Amino acid sequence: MLRVFCACFGLALALLVAGGSVAQTQDAQPPPAQAAPQPPVPVRVVDPTAVRVLDTPLAVRVVEPPKTDAQFDAERRERADRAALYDQLLIFAALLVAVVAFLAIAFAMQAYYQGLALRALRRSAQLGERNSVAVQRAFVYIDALDWGVAGANVRISPIWTNSGATPTRRMRISTNWKASHTELAADFDVNYVRPTENLFLGPNSKAEIGTIYIPMRDIQAAIEERLYLYVWGRATYEDMFEGSKPHFFNFCQRLEVTGEAPNNIDVRFAQFGLSNGSDEDSLLPDENER
To answer: Do residues 176 and 194 lie in contact, with contact meaning Cβ atoms separated by under 8 Å?
Structure first.
């Protein structure tokens, strides 16, 4: 027992001495030096197109056997038949285009001449209707200018006539006169200061309305050629036909006076200026708009 104890104690002491020597040895050794940095390893980029593939399949070319003469003849006949068919189709298409063009031209010419015929027919119908209306409608004009001595004046009375086959509607008469020391211009300003007078004229009838009185002293001055005397008038009216425009008639006369006033005078009338005519043939450019 004692021997076992001594052996264990000796073994423990030996281990203790050995551990202390090892610790001193580790403390005496210097720290290991830091390793130097290594340069980076270059990366090599491999071009995929430069990679050579060894397993590429080989191209195989199929060699057809040479054609026989019969096959060549058949192909030539087929090409000839196809060319002939193409030519026939081209000719047929050209003929079709020509026929369509001819029909289009014929249709256009027919439509043009039919339009001319219809226009001429319409114009003829309108002209016939217009002539019929012109013959039957009321047409008013001055048949004459009646005059006479009335005391210290000279009376001038327009005689209005309706030569149509129908009466007038809403007829209005306006008259006036003027004494001038000089002759008036042909386009002088025609004005009316007297109120209008209403008149009804039946078919083919006459009426005296719109009488003017000129003092005898002006008549004497006209005889001595110191004055120029003018009378004028206007009639506006409608006819009996629906849709027709109002009508008018203008007159303007210059008095030519001779003799001796007051009882031995002679008065004549002469048309003067542009204010003579109807709504259809008036020379005034703006008469149809009044």
So the answer is: yes
Burial of 120 (0-12, 13-18, 19+ CB in 10 A): exposed
Non-local (6+) Cβ contacts of 170 within 8 A are 198, 237, 238
Q: Half-sphere exposure of residue 9, counting CA atoms within 13 Å on the CB side?
A: 6
Taking a C-beta distance cutoff of 8 angstroms, is the pair 133, 241 a contact?
A: yes
What tokens appear for 7 in the block? 């052996």
Could you tell me the pLDDT band of residue 288, with boundaries at 50, 70 and 90? Answer: very low
Distance CA 289, CA 268 (A): 32
Instruction: Give, in degrees to the nearest 5, the angle at Cα 63 between 62 and 69.
Output: 140
Q: 133 vs 166, 169, 188, 244, 282, CA distance in Å?
A: 10, 15, 34, 9, 19
**In whole angstroms, what is the distance from residue 111 CA to residue 108 CA?**
5
Is residue 253 within 8 Å of residue 230, measured between CB atoms?
yes
pLDDT in tens, 151-166: 899 999 999 999 999 9
| Residue 170 parent element (H or E) | strand 169-180
- Positive or negative, the CA dihedral 178, 182, 186, 189 is negative
The span from the CA of 34 to the CA of 230, in Å, is: 143
Highest mean pLDDT among 24-28, 170-174, 241-245: 170-174
* 3-class secondary-structure state, position 71: helix
Tens of pLDDT, residue by residue over 207-222, are 999 999 999 999 999 9
Q: For residue 39, what are its two tokens?
A: 């340069």
Cα separation, 129 vs 52, in Å, equals 105
Amino acid identity, position 223: I
Instruction: Please enumerate in sequence order all residues whose Cβ is within 8 A of that of 66, keeping only pairs 6 or more positions apart, or say none.
Output: none
